[in-house]
Amino acid sequence: MMDRVPVLKLGDILIVSIQIDLQDQSVLALQEDLADQVVATGARGVIIDITAVEIVDSFIGRMLATIAAISRMLDAETVVVGMRPAVAITLVELGLSLGGVRTALNLEKGVALLNHLDGAQIVTAAQ
């Protein structure tokens, strides 16, 4: 049985926190689930938190770029947050620049980046 990655909604942002070792099928399912959720919710932003991911291979790296491209086509910007230095080094060594994928150090900075890109507050903190 394949583990599915949950997609959470916060305001106009969908948050994906990857807490499992991604297998190719899990990544393909995430791509489909996320596209469906962007359309269903009208999300303006997607944050993919990879803080818990220790290893990214070329397939997963390409799929992150593909997810960002699909989200853009559906009018949502994507930010990948929590990338470990070793993962960044591996992606560069594999020749994967993840073109079109914005990154931020953590979830808070990712939300701030999406708010800046949208030109308005798409997520507001609870008062």
Keywords:
127 residues; alpha/beta; Transcription Regulator spoIIAA; five-stranded mixed β-sheet; 4 helices; Bact_StressResp_Reg; STAS_dom; Anti-anti-sigma factor
Mean pLDDT: 87
Strand order of the largest sheet: 1-2-3-4-5
Name the helix and strand elements from N-terminus to C-terminus, one letter apiece.
EEHEHEHEH
For the largest beta-sheet, the strand count, sense and barrel status come to: 5 strands, mixed
CATH A-level architecture: 2-Layer Sandwich
- CATH superfamily, please? STAS domain
Q: What is the percentage of strand-forming residues?
A: 15-25%
Distance between the termini: 41 Å
Q: Which ranges are low-confidence, i.e. pLDDT below 50, for 5 or more consecutive residues?
A: none
Shape: globular
At a glance:
This is Anti-anti-sigma factor. Residues 3-114 form the STAS domain. The chain has 127 residues and is an alpha/beta fold.
Structural topology:
Layout: E1 7-10, E2 13-17, H1 24-41, E3 45-49, H2 58-73, E4 77-81, H3 85-93, E5 102-104, H4 107-118
Parallel strand pairs: 2-3, 3-4, 4-5
Antiparallel strand pairs: 1-2
InterPro entries: Bact_StressResp_Reg (IPR051932), STAS_dom (IPR002645), STAS_dom_sf (IPR036513)
Organism: Streptosporangium minutum
Domain STAS: 3-114
